[in-house]
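In response to reviewer comment 3 from the previous cycle, which asked for concrete evidence that the modeling workflow produces usable outputs, we include below a single protein chain processed end to end. The sequence was submitted unchanged, and the resulting structure tokens are shown without manual editing.
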Amino acid sequence: MTVKEAALFTGVSAQTVYSWVRRGHLTVTGLGHRGQKLFRHLDVARAELGTRAKSKRALVTTAA
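The workflow returned the following structure tokens.
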């Protein structure tokens, strides 16, 4: 998933996703055909869960 998709998936801004990468909470697993950073869904979910405990944001869920 891309940075934009990760942000939508977790309910945070793209800047927050970049911050997770910088701080070591999230690892880039590849690059897309346009050079965009790619992440695994599980890694994004873990980063969100790991950082949510320190923030005031609520868990966001969507029905499939």
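Helices lie at 3-10, 14-22, 41-52. We consider this sufficient to address the reviewer's concern, and the full set will be provided in the supplementary archive.
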